[in-house]
TrEMBL record:
Residues forming coiled coils: none
CDD domains the record matches: EAL
Span of domain EAL: 1-190
SUPFAM superfamilies (UniProt xref): EAL domain-like, Sensory domain-like
Name listed for the protein in its UniProt record: EAL-domain protein
PANTHER family with a match to the protein in the record: CYCLIC DI-GMP PHOSPHODIESTERASE PDEF, SIGNAL TRANSDUCTION PROTEIN CONTAINING A EAL DOMAIN
MF-aspect GO terms: cyclic-guanylate-specific phosphodiesterase activity
PROSITE patterns: EAL
Superkingdom per UniProt: Bacteria
Transmembrane segments: none
InterPro entries in UniProt: Cyclic-di-GMP_PDE-like, EAL_dom, EAL_sf, Sensor-like_sf, YkuI_C
SMART domains: EAL
Length: 346
């Protein structure tokens, strides 16, 4: 704590003397806040407040994974600090096993996500899902914002931006230095980079909407041709054979999520019937009910975001389509098709 305090002293003195008005992040071990050192830390802050330090600019950065004490005591301390204007950031997300329940109870202002894993060629597809989950968590814990660290390439910067990053940190933006960086030094560069990100994003969204539009028209036309007084499984099998270059799994449910057909699985250029899935209920899946209502109201299909398939673990998209008032078609797009159309991979 003594070494930390000396480093903080140097930062505070420079911060106050130069009248800096940007957030100042203090990396503090979470366990300090349940010992007598808590009072030392608070006294240290209040002492510099009297010297002109605006506590509204102070962000205390802790690692939730390091804390092993009384969570109620810790959250009580943070609530008190917030009354002084101090903000809380949870550090090292995206690098290990974090307890999302504990993070929610702490009500942080900022979630700091480490992008070091993006430097690995063997990065798990689950990593992208974790980052997406953190962006959702940020919105649900009182409007917390995301800070992305370890940004060392333009790709990292783009990745952080498109995953709802509010703050950015890393050598790609500015190397470590003993002086505070001039506030607007990156303004023009940021403007150009973000304009490029927007162009890329528009291209990807356009590809997504064009695919959805094309699939809507194809399925609408083919459904009119093949639907007759035949067993539903036979009808969907005929439809599957017309669409096999895109999809690897097709099935139909009712509006309550009960599967009304077998699973049609594309294997070695043939469609296999998996009867074990018939009768299963899928209403528990994220956005299922919302999407069914949306399809019913709009009478149009929906192309999902990228997600990890439950059975294969691969990243896929699903196109869902309202066949009539009570039947809904779900068509899982093959990873191979997505790989061939990289604009659909984001």
């Amino acid at each position: 704590m003594e070494i930390d305090q000396k480093i903080q002293d140097l930062a505070f003195k420079k911060y106050v003397s130069e009248n800096i008005q940007v957030p100042l992040y203090l990396n503090v071990h979470a366990n300090y806040f349940e010992t007598e050192k808590e009072d030392q830390f608070l006294d240290h802050l209040l002492n510099y407040q009297q010297k002109g330090l605006d506590l509204a600019n102070i962000v205390i950065e802790i690692s939730e994974q390091q804390f092993s004490g009384d969570l109620d005591l810790l959250t009580h301390t943070f609530k008190y600090l917030k009354t002084l204007g101090v903000k809380l950031a949870i550090d090292d997300l995206g690098t290990g096993a974090s307890n999302l329940d504990r993070i929610s109870l702490m009500e942080p202002d900022i979630l700091k996500v480490n992008l070091h894993a993006l430097q690995s060629e063997s990065i798990s597809t689950n990593y992208h899902s974790i980052i997406y989950s953190l962006s959702l968590l940020a919105r649900k814990v009182g409007g917390a914002e995301l800070l992305f660290a370890e940004i060392i390439t333009n790709y990292h910067f783009h990745y952080a931006w498109r995953n709802s990053g509010r703050y950015y940190q890393g050598s790609f933006l500015s190397p470590s230095a003993s002086d505070f960086v001039e506030m607007n030094i990156l303004k023009e560069r940021f403007r150009k980079d973000i304009q490029q990100f927007i162009l890329v994003e528009r291209k990807k969204l356009t590809a997504k909407f064009q695919l959805a539009k094309s699939l809507n028209l194809q399925i609408q036309g083919k459904w009119k041709q093949i639907k007759k007084n035949r067993e539903l499984d036979v009808v969907i099998d005929s439809l599957a054979k017309e669409m096999e270059h895109i999809f690897f799994r097709i099935y139909v449910t009712d509006e309550d999520g009960f599967q009304k057909t077998v699973n049609f699985i594309h294997v070695n250029k043939n469609w296999m019937w998996d009867k074990s899935a018939k009768g299963k209920n899928w209403s528990w899946r994220p956005y299922f009910i919302e999407n069914v209502i949306r399809m019913k109201e709009e009478q149009s299909g929906i192309l999902s975001d990228i997600y990890n398939d439950i059975e294969t673990g691969e990243r896929i998209r699903t196109f869902s389509y309202p066949l009539d008032e009570s039947l809904y078609l779900f068509m899982d797009i093959s990873p191979m098709y997505l790989d061939e159309h990289e604009d659909l991979l984001w």
